Amino acid sequence: MRDISKLVGIRYLRASKDSSGREISVASQDDEGEEFFDENGITHLRTYTDNNLSGSHFGKDRRDDYERALDDLKSGRAHLLWTFDSSRAQRDLEMYVQLRKICIQTGAYWAYGGRIYDMTDPVDRKITARDAAEAEGAADNISIHSRRGVRQRAKRGDYFGHPAYGYRPTYCPETGEPLGWVIVEEESATILRMVEWVKERKNLRWIANTLNDEGVPCPHEGRWDRRKVLKLAATYENDLEWHRFTKSLTEKQHKCALAVVMRVHAGEAPKEIGRDLNRRGISYVVASRWDGTKVRNVVKSKPRAGMRVHLGKVVKHKVMDPTAPEGFRMEPVPVTWKEIISPDDHVKVLAILEDPARATHREGTRAKHLWTGIARCGVCDGRLESRNSAKGRRLGCMDRGCVSRRQDLVEAWLTEQAIQLLEREDAAQLFRLDQPVDTAAEALDEAERLRAKLDGFRDDVLADRITRESFAMFEAALLPEIKKADERAKRAALPPVLSKVIGPDARGVFLGLDIAQQREILRAIMRPRMNRAKTRPRNGLETETIDSGFLFTSDASDESVPAA
């Protein structure tokens, strides 16, 4: 080995996990490094630390101090890099190659495990390469074991990760071991209010504004995370943006924000900064507010409905059922926490929020016309909107102007079609209101099971386990069944007020509702389409070119809808 006297070295310390923040692991590493430097007469330049950061290719956070250590080697300020062992530098062969190249080019050394390695020596390169490969393999094994453990916990229905809004973690008072999630009553009451508002077809923005006006804290209120720290640092880089951001802050909040930015500039990992602030009970500098997205995420949450999710899917298990086509049915695994949202309400909420028609309308107090946004153009499928003209208000195609009719005549005719439909003696059967909501939930599960089965056949085609002809046969058999299941599942999406309107008194009840409730019912039962007129009637309305668009399943009744 070359002469190693009068070496100037740097120590690099790293620990993958340190949730306590006490840095016990890196402190013990530093003790080892100090002893090694004293024994070998190495001059200590500085120590770099990346605490609570992974060194494997699975890690997502940048190790800023490790990059600074490499810069010291490249510049010649240091001639030796010390780490506790090979894996403290990295568990990634690509990063090992980078370090080896720097050492060869600059003549620097790498020391670990009580020995100094010279990268210009083929024997030392072979030893360090073997150790680096073993370190990466160990990281792969850790990842495999970790994923296996997560899967097993999911199958058992155990809690996971940070508690969802509405829950808090509990711990054993004697051992400190986590015991699971328990419901936070105040947050649970807020969630149930949101669910009821969604079932009443309230606008998500309206729900968010109501909660903000009442001062209801939103999920993870005041908590820091990596994203918030980075956003704060990015805002600081723009003087105008920083001024706008800080002018509404108190002096204490301003100092806190500035301190966080300075820590980022000093090289601390943003994730570790966030964890440190949370441990110390320091709230984020700006209070979080509810918005439509947060409301949607809370009420659609599967864990809050008592379902365990793994890799984005609900974890299910087989339940033997002789009445099922395959002798069993798939049900969500029982979980170790109590649900806040009932399964029936969860099905209703999903059906309401995932209804394609919902994305095209905003009700609230702004609705002025019965059929705008509900009726569609029969030519381009665009929405029909109300417009002023020299001849009065017209209902016409908003996108291309394909069609246009007198609004009063069109709305009167379509409303009469709707009322006649609601007055039918078999209306409850027609709209499946005679079926319980849990039947709709079963239909959703059935549709999901059939789609999964079809996806399995598709994978078999790609893997050449079955022929394309066989897949076409399976697809032809399954698609109609999926369609039927989807039709049965529509029961959950029907507004509750619909059950009060159907029957002989439908006309009086319907006309007594406010316009938002009337539109809610019309959207649930009809999707009219207006085509181009064949003639230009001077008076009256050419109804032959208007498709009422009744939304009911053909197998619910064999009778036709009353004629116009």
Descriptive overview:
With 564 residues, the protein is of the alpha/beta class. The chain has 5 domains: 8-150, 3-Layer(aba) Sandwich (Rossmann fold), CATH 3.40.50; 182-288, no CATH class; 299-353, no CATH class; 360-432 and 496-564, no CATH class; 434-493. It has 20 helices and 17 strands. The chain has helices at 24-40, 64-75, 86-89, 93-106, 122-156, 185-199, 204-213, 226-236, 239-246, 251-265, 270-279, 292-300, 343-353, 407-422, 427-430, 437-462, 468-489, 498-501, 506-511, 515-525, and strands spanning 8-15, 43-51, 80-82, 109-112, 115-118, 167-171, 178-183, 309-310, 313-314, 316-320, 328-332, 376-377, 384-387, 394-397, 404-406, 529-530, 546-547. The strands form 6 sheets. A 5-stranded mixed β-sheet has the order 2-1-3-4-5, sandwiched between helices. The radius of gyration is 33 Å and the shape is elongated. Residues 18-24, 360-365 and 553-564 have low confidence and may be disordered.
At the first level of CATH, what is the class of the largest domain?
Alpha Beta
Query: So how many helices?
Result: 20
Per DSSP E runs of 2 or more residues, the count of β-strands stands at: 17
The stretches of 5 or more residues where confidence is low (pLDDT under 50) are: 18-24, 360-365, 553-564
Strand order of the largest sheet: 2-1-3-4-5
SSE map:
Blueprint: E1 8-15, H1 24-40, E2 43-51, H2 64-75, E3 80-82, H3 86-89, H4 93-106, E4 109-112, E5 115-118, H5 122-156, E6 167-171, E7 178-183, H6 185-199, H7 204-213, H8 226-236, H9 239-246, H10 251-265, H11 270-279, H12 292-300, E8 309-310, E9 313-314, E10 316-320, E11 328-332, H13 343-353, E12 376-377, E13 384-387, E14 394-397, E15 404-406, H14 407-422, H15 427-430, H16 437-462, H17 468-489, H18 498-501, H19 506-511, H20 515-525, E16 529-530, E17 546-547
Parallel strand pairs: 1-2, 1-3, 3-4, 12-16
Antiparallel strand pairs: 4-5, 6-7, 8-9, 10-11, 13-14, 14-15, 16-17
